[in-house]
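Help!! Second protein's tokens look totally different from the first
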Amino acid sequence: MRILHTGDWHLGKNLEGHERIKEQEQFIDELVQIADTYQVQMILVAGDIYDHSNPPAKAERLFYEALRRLNNKGERIIVVIAGNHDHPERLAATAPLLYEEGIFLFGTIYDTVPKGTYSNFAIQHSGKGYMEIEVKGERVVLLTLPYPSEKRLNEIFTEELQEEEQQKAYSQRIGELLRQLAVHYQEDTINILVSHLYLGGGEESESERPIQLGGSLAVDIEEFPRGAQYIALGHLHRPQRIQGSQVTAYYAGSPIQYSKSEITYAKSVYIADVIPNKKPKVEQVFLKNYKPIEIWNCKSMGEALARCEEPCEYPHWTYLEIETEEVLHQEDIKTLRQLKKDIIEIIPRLKNIEEEQLVYEDPMDKTMEALFREFYTSQRQVPPTQELVELFLDIMENGGGEDETHSIEDSRAK
């Protein structure tokens, strides 16, 4: 069976307030083309379909349109699991409407699909976290482990444990779950695992938010079942094979550059040809860079203005770093943004500034607004706009309820 592995679409994600939906539409177009060209029989989407637990309507519309096109009127099986950015119940809410087309959405490990014979396939066996599906004479046992946080598993492994013990307890519990599911693997079936988690040894990028409150709880690769012929993973945005193990495990990575830390490597999907009781043949298929992120380093404001005035050869997002001896004026910043609409951030690099004597003040003596203004200015070398200050104060005042997917925001991605 030929399987396409993708994930971390993050539909609806913005880049510092700039919409990326057009790039995501281009990705879906290319993904459909790849699936058709390679005559793929099954597609695995390894979590983080959306960037938020409550995605915008445009993102949901794109997701369901992608499922329709990729499924090709029931000719291609699609399996989708929830990641840490997805709302598990919301993602799986439409699952019963899609079974007959061969589209399966899993929000948690406890989700199941009904057994039955359909037009192009049959679900021969199923239960929590697994299903055996027959497609055109080929039998596949698929283990599904959507993002397994303590909250979603409804278990607590880490209470009153030191960090090292927390990691060990969590990893062992995930291993136990996988071993229980792996009993359904057979020698004459194609044995697959799809999950969204942090695997020890994987390379992260800035745009991945911490996967767990208080830090990233990782799973040791040795906890993965030896019987799995191909392990399709999501969460890390750099496409990569997990090294140093007997199992074949890959992170597909994200389809587009979601932060400037991702500009040094290409984006891709994986195509795996799998037959029972054999090692799979895996091919990395690279994606186009629909609108790359660039970092411009300018020695002066004059150079920055000149570069922004030049006609663009291709669309791209720009982080503009400018060496300067003084704080940038709002008029200069406004001019740069008028000249080039796709500037993400203007970053002054102050030079020849004498170190000032530090004066320590008790932060308890300052208002929240004053603290925010000082912090923002120290990080960006420009003061925040009044609109941004008001937005910050409004968020602080109205807060809202806790959301598992956004309890901690990775400040490195800003």
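Here's the second one for comparison:
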Amino acid sequence: MPKNMSESLKRTPLYHTHKKIGAKLIEFGGWEMPVQYSNIIEEHLTVRSKVGIFDLSHMGEIVIFGQGALKLVQKLITNDAAGKLVDGRILYSPMCNPAGGIIDDLLVYRLAEDRYMLVVNASNIKRDFEWICAHNDDNAEIEDRSDRTVLIALQGQNSVQILQTLSDVDVTAIQYYWFQEGLITGIPVIISRTGYAGEVGFELYTDARYGVDLWDSLYKSTIAGGGLPVGLGARDTLRLESGLPLHGNDIDQTTTPLESRLSWAVSLQKGNFIGRKALVKQKKQGITNRLIGFRMLDRSIA
């Protein structure tokens, strides 16, 4: 990567750590991120058979809180936060424009009755934040915590044993799409039973000042457990193999959730939200375009 290009990119708090362990860095969504450490195939297969550790700190965390928080979240997303979320629960949802196109797909964490964390895609952070603020007619408070948050994922069957050893929380009790706050080697962390690899795994959120120490502890245990650090290259092949969409590639503002096989994340009956009228119309008229996947029978480029 040319030096002048590298200097213009954002870096996570773990940048120098990645350099030390031999990461190959590329530009992704305005960030300089590891695409691989050893090689993509080895990293992919290691996650499938053992465990991998990922730096996902380029992702965005936007917190909505205060008296109007739930009302604003309900307006923004297609899924039903009011009907499905309780404290400690996580919800996947598209966020649409008035035409029903997907501005982004995100996770909603209910931290408290009046406090929600939206985890958005890295390349969409600024646009999503501005969109959320522009539609805040509910006196909610909105805070972009992306630059102050480190997100590390531990994915693969050995992730449970590793975290159970390092954490003060019984991670075996955390169900899929639930989270719990706890300590990992004394560091305060949100331990989230989520992932983008199609495997048993966790995503761990902490304050940026603890990021390097948290990575170091998890990295040592990952290597000891036969695992590897994993870059964005294998993250992409893992999610593709698992049939998980990537915003900007598989879905975008020209595609709707109904076209993208995400109707399970659309709650038309919850009441009004941005894009609802267009989605009701599309459902009534019928879907003419649909996202499909192909299973590759031979070695080839997906």
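Reply: Different proteins will give different token patterns, so don't panic. The first helix runs from residue 3 to 7.
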